[in-house]
Amino acid sequence: MPRTRTPLKGKTNMPDQSARPGSEFHWPFIAAWAFCVVFYFLQYALRSAPGVMVPELTSSFGLTALGVSSLIGLYYYTYSTFAIVSGACFDRYGAKYVVPVGLALLAIGAILFGMGLAAAADAGRLFQGAGSAFAFTGAVYLASHGFPGRYLATAIGFTQCFGMLGGSAGQFAVAPLIHGVLPWQQFWIYGGLAAAALALIALIVTPGGHAERTPAQLSIWSMFTPYKSVLSNPQSYLCGFAAGLLFLPTTVGDMIWGVSFLREGWHIGYAEAVNRAAMVPLGWVIGCPLLGYIADRFGRRKPVLIGGATLMLIVALAILYMPHDTIPPYLEGLLLGIGSGAAMIPYTIIKEVNADEVKGSATGAINFLVFTLSALMAPIYGWVLVKVSNGGPLDLPVFQQAGLIGVGGIALAIVLSFFIRETGSAAQASKPKTLLPLKPALGGAL
């Protein structure tokens, strides 16, 4: 007879957030996911905003091109580091208190940046990166527990969609604000206050409770144990580096240097340059959910990943090396952004090539790998610009030579994609099932 399981002593009826996603919608987690998506929107707006205030930052802090790139790039150092911390925190503590902590760090960082002091700006950018690392990881974590597994790639795509909508707003909406409505410092103060208000809302709406822990799991260091599984899987590195290389044209190329490239390289006016640069993250708004839906609809991840990256490569080459009126205005940035949506496919794959109980850590690991690349490449790209220009203006030939970094990165991502395991539902359904030998019964009679 089957044995009835005796409840563990002290076991509560709180929801187990580490459970495998089922076939039903869990609306409390979906509601919390929605507010975490707003968090992701806000942090992306604050991440991209410095790209439209490079002249103000240069004059206020007395910085060179390398100095501006380094200041803005500080964000990615703490973002990549805290990506590891955030993933472990979600797996260890759940989302109820971790998401508000991330918002609080973002609020502190924005207010510090708005003080207008060089040291405070450095610290503020570091705080912004640390807090922002909890946004996407938290949204994916909550989506994993709110949506059925068959909708997960679509939910992750919509999450990134709203993030990049924030990135686009951080360019086309912030530029007119700081050049007519309020000083750039006040923009950061208001952004910090908005993050603080959202932290209170998230604390109220996010479900509590988590799986019960054994005494051995109560150690603070045990929260990092899941990374042993994630980071010992070669597929995790393939996902991380492929996604990271596909992120570079956006995080470094567009959000830091996109406006400068259009102004100095193509000699486009400031307002027009801001609007064109904002089309790249706006393309993500289309590309992320669209490519996620296609990957879910056809049950194949790799063809969508490789196809989107190939579109990126073609458009990037056209932007850099063809006459700037070859492609209709605004279309080149939009197409680049749509193709860039493929960078989110590895975020789904890494969760599928690792165990179910390390969902948060898998997302934290890929965020760490992705934005470590951005943290390293932001100052390197600035140094290359200074080196190639040799103290002269940052004209089109300078950007064309430096742009080989991004082009080479996209090409390498395509190569890595061929070695990533296909985890789509169609591939899983086509795998032959292993039949276990039947156990003889009644003296061998079947």
Quick recap:
This protein has helices spanning 27-48, 54-61, 65-93, 98-113, 118-146, 152-172, 174-181, 184-205, 226-231, 234-254, 258-265, 270-277, 279-298, 302-321, 331-340, 345-352, 359-389, 396-402, 404-417, 425-430. With 446 residues, it is mainly alpha-helical.
List the helices and strands and how they pair.
Elements: H1 27-48, H2 54-61, H3 65-93, H4 98-113, H5 118-146, H6 152-172, H7 174-181, H8 184-205, H9 226-231, H10 234-254, H11 258-265, H12 270-277, H13 279-298, H14 302-321, H15 331-340, H16 345-352, H17 359-389, H18 396-402, H19 404-417, H20 425-430
Helix pairs in contact: 1-4, 1-5, 1-6, 1-8, 3-5, 3-17, 4-5, 4-8, 5-6, 5-17, 6-13, 10-16, 10-17, 10-19, 11-12, 13-14, 13-15, 14-15, 14-19, 16-17, 17-18
Characteristic terms for this protein:
446 residues, mainly alpha, Growth Hormone, Chain: A, 20 helices, globular, disordered N terminus, disordered C terminus
How far from one another are the termini?
22 Å
CATH topology name, in short, is Growth Hormone, Chain: A
**Could you say which overall geometry the principal axes of the C-alpha atoms support?**
globular
- Give the CATH superfamily: MFS general substrate transporter like domains
